[in-house]
Prior knowledge:
By secondary structure, the protein is of the alpha/beta class. It has one domain (13-189): Rossmann fold (3-Layer(aba) Sandwich). Helix content is 56%, strand content 12%. The protein has a five-stranded parallel sheet, sandwiched between helices. The structure holds adenosine-5'-diphosphate (ADP) and manganese (II) ion (MN).
Amino acid sequence: QNGSIRSRWRPNILVTGTPGTGKTTTSSALAEATQLRHVIVGDLVREKNLHDGWDPELESYLINEDLNYFAICDLLMEALSMHLKMVCDELEDRMEEGGNIVDYHGCDFFPERWFDRVVVLQTDNTVLYDRLTRRGYSGSKLSNNIECEIFQVLLQEAKESYPEDIVVALQSDTIEDINRNVTSLTDWVRSWRPTS
Ligand code: ADP
Ligand code: MN
């Protein structure tokens, strides 16, 4: 990998995809089968947000009506990406150790060197529509995610961010798909070697 020798003895896998494609279900089954550690990045970012509480500077902006809607969105995005960066910094040692399954609906800000395999889960639009509706999504939140899936945004992002030979797209429409994906990924983990 870029000519350097990897120090980890177990591989790191990124499981990504549009919300609802089955990242968390697949990752937790894979973690159980392989004893790799399931890292749910969204939960870690949420904990950071809760822990840090509300940004007083942002609050004063909001109260004083100094900012328009878009500026507020920008500030919130900035706070979120700051927390994501903090989470990434904290994950660095663990990732160097290896043996992690990272579960997140994005991939372009993780360092390329972290991963030995990038799995992009994909789901048929109508199946995904039903899953997200059941999850309580509606309106633009629902349609944005369906569009994200139709245009294969996560697959494009993964292909742009990582070497093509480590990126795999896996279908995730049914329970059988999950079983097959977990089995093939478990085989891959078992045959992985630090120099491979
Ligand atoms: P994500 O973490 O990508 O948002 P989840 O793993 O939370 O997705 O799955 C969302 C919902 O869809 C859950 O209720 C889960 O049981 C269901 N689900 C996910 N993948 C599949 C699949 N391949 N077949 C059937 N149901 C699935
Ligand atoms: Mn999830």
